Amino acid sequence: MLADLEALMDEYDVVESGDRDVLLQMQRDSLKSEPLTTFRNVILSGTPRYLGRR
């Protein structure tokens, strides 16, 4: 996935190393936790099951 992000940054001419680092770190951080955990208190109770999550 990081390689895909790097390819997209190349395609869209994201050349500043600081910008690239921030985007890569955001990608790494997104892989650390369940995406729905943050929103569990506002989504319907059956949504995680519908999306294939517990």
Describe how the helices and strands are arranged:
Blueprint: H1 2-11, H2 17-30, H3 47-50
Helix pairs in contact: 1-2
Provide structural commentary.
With 54 residues, the chain is mostly helical. It contains three helices and no strands. Helix 1 packs antiparallel against helix 2 (17-30). It is elongated, with a radius of gyration of 15 Å. The mean pLDDT is 81.
What Rg is obtained from the alpha carbons, in whole angstroms?
15 Å
Helix content: 40-55%
Q: What order do the helices and strands follow? A: HHH
- Mean pLDDT comes to 81
In one word, what is the shape? Answer: elongated
Structural class: mainly alpha
Largest sheet composition: none
Oligomer: single chain
* Topology, number of strands: 0
Count of helical regions: 3
Features:
mainly alpha; 54 residues
Produce a short descriptive summary:
Helices cover 52% and strands 0% of the residues. It has 54 residues and is mostly helical.
